[in-house]
Write a structure and sequence with these properties.
With 347 residues, the protein is α/β, with parallel strands linked by helices. The protein contains twelve helices and twelve strands. α8 packs parallel to α9. The longest helix is centred in the first third of the chain and has 20 residues. It binds 3-isopropylmalic acid and manganese (II) ion.
C-alpha cells in the first residue's frame, strides 16, 4: 500500500485541537481511498521553547526534510514568548528553508455560511508570494535606544522570485476561470512594484488565454468587499498577500474557514499546510475552535500528494457538515462535534 510520511506540528493554542481533528479526518479519508498516512508528531511550540530555549531543535529543518508533507496547527503564545521570537524560530524558518514560494489561500463561501457581505457566491484563489518581498528579513537598527535610533527593513524583489510566483498564478488561472489579478502599489512604490508590473505584462504574452488585470492593493481591498465575484486568481507580494488573505478570510465567514498551502512546486522538499487563523489564545481552552480551516488545509495536502479523490471526499464531507449549519457560526458547536459531523459525512 502506498503511504505518505507526514510531519505534524500542532504548535500552540488551538493549533493542537484543530490538528488532531484534521488528522482524524485525513486518516479516515486515507483508509477509504486505500493509501496510508504515517504521521510523526513534533512538540515544537512555545512550551518547547520554555523548556529548551528554542522553538525547535537545531536540526529541526533537517528532520522535516525527510517527510512528504508538513501539517501545522498554529504558532504563537505572545503572553509567554514574543511573536517575533516564536514565529522566527519555527514557522518562518520552515517557509524559508523549503522555499514554498506559493502560499495558496482559497476564499469562498461554504454551503450554509452566509458571510458578512451577504453577497452571494464568490470563489477567489489568493496566491501570496511566500519567500521574499516585505518578509525578506533584510534590515537592521542603529543608535538603539537613543533619540537618533533608526530602523530599516528593506523589501527584496528578485526577478526569479517575482517571475515564478506570477507564472504559478497564470497556471492556476488556466485551471480555473482564466482570470488573473496582479496586485501591486506601483503608483507609489516606483522600483519594486513597477518591476512586478513589468514582469506581469511580459509573462502575459505567454498566456494569451488568460485575462489579466492590474490592481493597486488599496483598490483590491475595496474590490474584495464590493465585488468579490469579479475575482478569480489574485497574486500578490508577501505582505500584501498576508493582508488580503485575512480580508479573504473575513468575507468567507471568518478565520475558522481560511485554509492554506505553502507549496514548493518543484516537489523535492516537503510542502507545508496550515490554517490561516493562528493560535487564538483567547479561546484556546474552550473546545470551540473551528477545525474546518485545518481540515480544508489537510484536503489541500492530499491534493498536493496526488490523492485528488480523497481530497475531494474530504471537501465534500466538510460541505455536507456546513450545509447542515454545523460549524458555521462561531462558538455554537464544539470542535469535536464539528469533527464528528465531517467524519460521519465521510462515511
Ligand atoms: C499568516 C500569519 C503569519 C504571516 C504570521 C503569524 C507571521 O499572519 O500566515 O498569514 O504573516 O505570514
Ligand atoms: Mn496573516
Amino acid at each position: 500500500m502506498k503511504s505518505y510520511k507526514i510531519a505534524l506540528i500542532p504548535g500552540d493554542g488551538i493549533g493542537t485541537a484543530v490538528t488532531e481533528a484534521a488528522w482524524e479526518v485525513l486518516a479516515r479519508a486515507a483508509r477509504g481511498a486505500g493509501f496510508g498516512l504515517d504521521g510523526t508528531s513534533f512538540p515544537w511550540s512555545c512550551d518547547f521553547y520554555e523548556k529548551t530555549g528554542a522553538m525547535m531543535p537545531a536540526d529541526g529543518i533537517e528532520t522535516l526534510r525527510g517527510f512528504d508533507a508538513i501539517l501545522l496547527g498554529a504558532v504563537g503564545w505572545p503572553k509567554r514568548v514574543p511573536d517575533s521570537v516564536s514565529l522566527h524560530g519555527l514557522l518562518l524558518p520552515i517557509r524559508k528553508a523549503f522555499v514554498p514560494y506559493a502560499n495558496i489561500r482559497p476564499h469562498r463561501l461554504l454551503p450554509g455560511v452566509e458571510g458578512p457581505l451577504r453577497a452571494g457566491s464568490f470563489d477567489i484563489l489568493c496566491i501570496r508570494e511566500n519567500t521574499e518581498g516585505e518578509y525578506a528579513g533584510a534590515g537592521g537598527r542603529v543608535h538603539n535606544g537613543t533619540a537618533d535610533e533608526v530602523a530599516v527593513e528593506t523589501s527584496i524583489f528578485t526577478r526569479k522570485g517575482v517571475e515564478r510566483i506570477l507564472r504559478f498564478g497564470f497556471e492556476q488561472a488556466r485551471k480555473r476561470r482564466g482570470k488573473l489579478a496582479s496586485v501591486t502599489k506601483s503608483n507609489a512604490q516606483k522600483y519594486s512594484m513597477v518591476f512586478w508590473d513589468e514582469i506581469t505584462a511580459r509573462l502575459a504574452a505567454d498566456y494569451p488565454d488568460i485575462e489579466v488585470a492590474n490592481y493597486h492593493i488599496d483598490a483590491m481591498a475595496a474590490r474584495m468587499v464590493m465585488a468579490p465575484e469579479s475575482l478569480d486568481v489574485v497574486v500578490a507580494s508577501n505582505l500584501f498577500g498576508d493582508i488580503l488573505t485575512d480580508l479573504g478570510a473575513a468575507i468567507q465567514g471568518g478565520l475558522g474557514f481560511a485554509a492554506s498551502a505553502n507549496i514548493n512546486p518543484e516537489r523535492n522538499v516537503p510542502s507545508m499546510f496550515e490554517p490561516v487563523h493562528g493560535s487564538a489564545p483567547d479561546i484556546a481552552h474552550l473546545g470551540i475552535a473551528n477545525p474546518i480551516a485545518a481540515i480544508w488545509s489537510g484536503a489541500m495536502m492530499l491534493e498536493h500528494l496526488g490523492e485528488a479523490g480523497a481530497a475531494k471526499a474530504v471537501m465534500t464531507a466538510i460541505e455536507a457538515a456546513t450545509a447542515r449549519r454545523i460549524g458555521t457560526e462561531p462558538g455554537r458547536h464544539k470542535t469535536q462535534d464539528i469533527t464528528a459531523a465531517v467524519l460521519s459525512a465521510l462515511g
